[in-house]
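Worked example 4.2. Below are the chains of a multi-component assembly; read each line carefully before continuing.
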Amino acid sequence: MLNNAYPALATGRRLPNLWDVVAILCVFGAIVGLVHVGRGALVPLNAPHATEISLDPANLPGYAVRTTLRMFAAILASLLFTLTYATAAAKSRRLGLVLVPILDILQSVPILGFLTFTVVFFMSLFPGQVLGLELAAVFAIFTSQAWNMAFSFYQSLKTVPADLAEASVSFHLTGWQRFWRLEVPFAVPGLVWNTMMSMSGGWFFVVASEAISVGDNTWKLPGIGSYVALALEQRDIHAVLYAIGAMLVVILLYDQLLFRPLVAWSAKFRFETTASATADDPWVLRIIRRTRLLQLAGGAVGSAVGAFGGLRLSFLPRRSASAADHKPSRVVDALCLLALVPVLAWAVYHLVGFVSTELSWADLGQVFVLGLITMLRVIVLIALATLIWVPIGVWIGLRPVWARRVQPLAQFLAAFPANLLFPPVVLAIVSFHLNPDIWLTPLMVLGTQWYILFNVVAGAAAFPGDLQEAAKNFQVGGFLWWRRVILPGIFSYYVTGAITASGGSWNAAIVAEVVSWGTTKLTAHGLGAYIADATDKGDMARVVLGVAVMSGFVLLFNRLLWRPLYGYAQRRLTLA
Amino acid sequence: MDTIIAAHPTLLEVEACRQSYRKDAGNADLVVLEDVNLTLREGEIVALLGRSGSGKSTLLRIVAGLLKPTAGRVTWRGEPIKGPADGVAMVFQSFALFPWLTVQENVELGLEARGVPRVEREQRAEAAIDLIGLGGFESAYPKELSGGMRQRVGLARALVVHPDLLLMDEPFSALDVLTAETLRTDLIDLWSDGRLPVKSVLMVTHNIEEAVLMTDRILVFSTNPGRVASELVVPFPHPRNRLDPAFRQMVDDIYALMTRRPAPGLRAATALAPAAIAMPLHRVGTNMMSGLMETLAGPPYEGRADLPALAGSLQLEADELLPLGETLQLLHFAVVEEGDIHLTDQGRSFVNAETDDRKRLFAEALRAHVPLAAMIRQVLDERWNHRASAVRFRDELEDHMSPDYADETLRSVIGWGRYAELFSYDEEAEQFSLEDIE
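Applying the procedure described above to all two chains together yields the following structure tokens:
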């Protein structure tokens, strides 16, 4: 399962190339365009009655349901996006050249910074209606979920086993049948895992996206996020605690009712030829499998899906031979690139025009320095989290009984939106007069450190027994044991966890560097605070600049540090 | 039997088939198959026999419509093949079962793709599953089955579409000896009884005995480039007895055929005199080499052995034994001819030497007879820092052979060079050096 956790890294590209530049321009061009449309259509909106929030805990279940529905709407949208976008990128070499880098860039762009503008855009689509706000919230959640799912699916499509692909051709499967019988099933384990990760990421955005202020107007969609926002405004710590409780219940419910069964079910699609030891079925799946009525229903759904996938549709003429002997035509390649030129020119023109009227080189310098500060934070935090959680994770992982207990807990903690835990920390900082530049920092890893923990636990649990025995037999102990035995053994797992943790921390900076409690506002110096501040003021130019620089930092961080480490771990330190 | 089959209608015809890959750099094409002709009639089982890399699997994929030949005509029932033809089904070496489908669903797959209605699909799948001896396993998933049972599913999946031609790509080579034998005899029994719903079978194998045991006709492929070196008719009726002297004689003859050195004229015509370093090397371990030489030197062989007998007693397949023998021949430690292998004087002195002397002898043989190894050492000696990147050697090899072969050749030479302490190699940096070499 963990192998699928970060498939994007397997591609091994490092230094940004031409296509990355193209992708960056496309993404930012589109964003600026979107913002432009949104801004032009900005019409005064009277806050509808439907968007009033009350702090009465009795309303919380209703809010929780609405929030959860938004989450699932976004997941659905992400799935649709995944099945189409990733398929297009994988099936067409030329589309892939552009689509894959775009995905890579989108993955590292903190969309949170653009929230204000996407809200304006969607509200302009449905002026005066709550639907616009709803769509904006769903879109914000979608942007936090879709990319890694699409990447995982793309990676699966690219690694479909050759013999199965040949078998499906030689047994005359149509393109449609091949997609549903071979490619989708093959991708299921990775996709389920990434959907789960996306769901956790989405909670973080829910809290930020339900209560939105644009300029002087503030809208609050009924939901847990708005409830928390209001509680913060009114300094109601009890309400915050209620919200945390409600969130715990919701996460526990969908974890138990949906994801545990899904993960267990997806094991069926794991591509392995030997039966491996599998965990017990989670109780929900057991109920479904043993209850006759549910089983019938499940069977009906299954055969409906089967019939759907079995339709003999074909969108492309059946290809006679493998792709190897289709020689790619350089002429068509050149034409495609040429067609891109006007689009790029348009994007460059707008970006330059837009940026040059409102920004100076000094702004860039300032943002760069702020970026360095935030980077320092991320590095220190990941280092600290590593020092703390690696020994603990190893200790737990080597004790199977503990590992079984702790693993779900760590995954659960990773799913919990850490921004809900901010208020108590803010209270502490205010009452003890602590330095926000230092003490706001831990908030950035509050939610993401668990990825390090549960990956290390998984790695230590998978560490081969014979190697442990050998180490004992030769009396390898103390520091030598860490250096020569266990650290190399868990390294690839650790890197997987650390990548997720560091990516999440960058994103969290936007929320964690500025926090407020009633009228008290604590600000740390950093790029996150800069973006949050510009968003508050509606200063689009500075938001774009801040987000662009942050994306650049994340991208370089990934390409220059994490991917080489990941590649090294894959080559040298995997126990194959 | 010949005359009867010759009167049967022709199913498949391959004429002057050629398959090559073009290198980007614009060098000469890498030829995998050259001028292959094959006619297949109803009622016969034909084997494509050859070493790995002789292009026999490529030919099978061309016939299956999975690959398009670079040149030549391939016709199925008189029509040129464009894509997988109806009436052709394939059994894969790796089984190629869908792990998320049950046995029944796997078997039904081909029918479903053809739009056969559900009821008929289920009936035909049941029949195929029973025929092949899988009854009771319908609802099992592939990972619950042993290798032999999995290949039975692969067979049932192919048979259920009632193909006129059954293609089998080394169907038994991933199975253990006993299981493979059971499957072979089961299949031949069904064929002899006329219960197999196919008209003809084309199978790829590197196992000489398997070909003689099962098929009516054997096409023996030569390597570099792959071409049909000879065609043999197997005259024995089924069931065949492996211990029958005539059977043994035929196996011996094929060994001799496969170890025969190509006539000088033929070699000059096919290979455009590649640079000496671009000699493809087999990935043969040094332990295997010394093991074989020690076995040969000892009783009962006393320096000379019959290859089929040796293969039998060492439990090696022809595909493993022949590269081993050829490598020893390349190093002048042994000579292989007409199905026999015998040790040379160098081979004997290697066997009698201690570890360090063995390494010295091996190093001498490498420098004298493996130009690539000699060149790597020479480059290292000439460089001031005694380092050289493997990439340049790989590139040079890839000018003359496919990337896979280049890789295998380079890996072989690295393994041998390390053993001989001719040079050392840093995998991470992909670099040769003279570190730790005195």
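Take a moment to check your reading of the output against the notes. Residues 263-274 of chain B have pLDDT under 50 and may be disordered. The first strand of chain B starts at residue 10 and ends at 21.
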